[in-house]
Amino acid sequence: MLRDFEKLQTFMIVAQEKSISKASMKVGISQPAVTQHIKIIESYFNTKMIYRKKNGVLLTKDGESLFWILVKLNKTLKDYQKEMVMMIKRCETIKIACSYTVGKFILPQCFTEVKSNIYPNIEHYVATSVEAIHDLQNKKCEIAIVESPFFKENIIYREWLEDELVLVCNKPLERIVKGEDLYSYNWVGLNPQTQTARIIKKHLDKLSIKSDKLKISLEFDKLSEIKDFLISQVEGKDIYVGFLPYLHIQNELKNRMLYTRSVRGLKLRRKMFLAFPKHKKNDSLIKNISHHIIFNTAISMY
């Protein structure tokens, strides 16, 4: 057991996520398999490690002790990770296809460490989720980071981060916006064929807000174009609104160039997934890079 890092890692992720289901998505195995790993650990140590509750899991005292031992062990392994990966003796460039949000606002935060500690020859380029999966299938990239999984038999998905889309306006509005108020605004929207537009529509549908009834003044293909337009209208007379990822507008909010408002009952979040070909699941380099990105990247939300 003490050499079975796979099961110990599963326990560590369960402890971090406080959820069997979330750990299952991150580790990439079924929930019954996660539960089985925990049972094997509990059997080995002859003690209960977690309590299952309706809203997640809670560590026992022994579970807490094991978790902190594993945190220290994980740090030690991480210190030697670069040396172990360099033994693989590979020199090809690993390409990662990702969305604009990931490529501009998230990956730069972790790439320095990945290149320093894991593998130096990594590049990323911006693509839509559909394009990224297409490139993955056609061997134009080794890893894809997408906002929604397009389930294919030959692709493995790992749940990664979750970001939030917020209502953004070029002028201050009331602090809390009611659902029915959305029909009165001038909207700057995304092309409805984009994946993010579909996610927005799905969340609005849950509030019985009909997105096709909103007053769409302009439509763009990219989120960055919506942001640029809203900034260009700061001095204008008309009020425009649109949904943007919070990550895109942090500086503009600080400088009061744009404003955000809460919509009552609406939490517009989208999950991101890391994907790689099934035939690469035992590729040590891809596994190390993917693992580092998944478990060592965080985003700041407000």
From TrEMBL:
Pfam families: HTH_1 (PF00126), LysR_substrate (PF03466). Keywords: DNA-binding, Transcription, Transcription regulation. It comes from the Bacteria. Residues 1-60 form the HTH lysR-type domain. Signal peptide: none annotated. PROSITE patterns: HTH_LYSR. One of its GO terms (molecular function) is DNA-binding transcription factor activity. InterPro entries: LysR_HTH_N, LysR_subst-bd, WH-like_DNA-bd_sf, WH_DNA-bd_sf. Belongs to the LysR transcriptional regulatory family. This is LysR family transcriptional regulator. It comes from Helicobacter apodemus. The lineage of its organism: Bacteria, Pseudomonadati, Campylobacterota, Epsilonproteobacteria, Campylobacterales.
